[in-house]
Amino acid sequence: MSAAQSLIEDWRKYLAQDRRRSVHTVRAYIATAERLVAFLQEHQGGSVTRNDLTSLKTADIRSFLAERRITDDIGNLSAARELSAIRGFLRFVGGEGANVPAIKGPRVKRGIPRPVSPDDVIALAHDVAETARDGWIGARDWAVLLLLYGAGLRIGEAMSLTGEILPLQETLRVTGKRNKTRIVPLLPQVREAIDAYLAVCPYPAECGEPLFKGARGGPLSASLIRRAVQGARGRLGLSERTTPHALRHSFATHLLGRGADLRSLQELLGHASLSSTQVYTHVDAAHLLDVYRNAHPRA
Predict the structure, then answer these.
(1) Can 280 be counted among the known catalytic residues?
(2) Active site residue 180
(3) What is the pTM of this model?
(4) Any domain includes 225
(5) Is 216 annotated in the active site?
(6) Catalytic residue among 69, 126, 177, 241
(7) Fewest C-beta in 10 Å: which of 105, 191, 211, 229?
(8) Residue in 29, 149, 197, 280 annotated catalytic
(9) pLDDT, tens only, 111-143
(10) Residue 82's domain spans which residues?
């Protein structure tokens, strides 16, 4: 293993174990580090050492990003993510007091999440449940979608629930990103939906085993739920932005519209930073403008 590959492997362990980054984040960051090393190898004509990485200049990183734009046609958002990963990698390689080249990232216009109306959420869940190939699978999908909307869970968080949460209580302990746990209220309608699914599921919900089962009794894949939602939104004529994650956005937006404060909402969503939650203030304002434009005769 080369010196650069050894550094990348050490960084992988650091991200996964010390920083508790998600599997997807680790995979993306490691891919960036590998691309950077490959770029440097090609331009230097030899192996890359720790000293090569710690002595990188701003121009070197700009050249790497420029090649990514030309070769892979990446946009500003991808370039910004790539730059963030490079900074993290170089700080890790350089250790305490690392001198990472100062480079301003591309301007990225932050998108505003688009909530789904309560009526559309219910229509979506009904359609998914009714078109399922088996009754118990329909009950399962109904329960999952109500859980995403009624408790604001990420789909990965819902898929990671196990039989240990049974019997259901008025609150639910959820493990989110970076293994951070939080307590969320469980509405009666959501509890009823989960109980109804468990009553007809042919596989027992045992402690340590996934709560939501696939057709053969294994863990339910999030991609199956995404695919079911995609089919339902096409049949119902809903926006392409109507995804399982959009139900979480809807949970947040509708709570904010009913007077929830940002700090409480931050805790319910499991956001590490309040700035991540503040985006929903813009969502609520955007929703009001949409209502105004659609309803006001002189809008």
Answers:
(1) yes
(2) no
(3) 0.57
(4) yes
(5) no
(6) 177
(7) 105
(8) 280
(9) 555 667 778 888 899 999 998 989 999 999 999
(10) 3-94
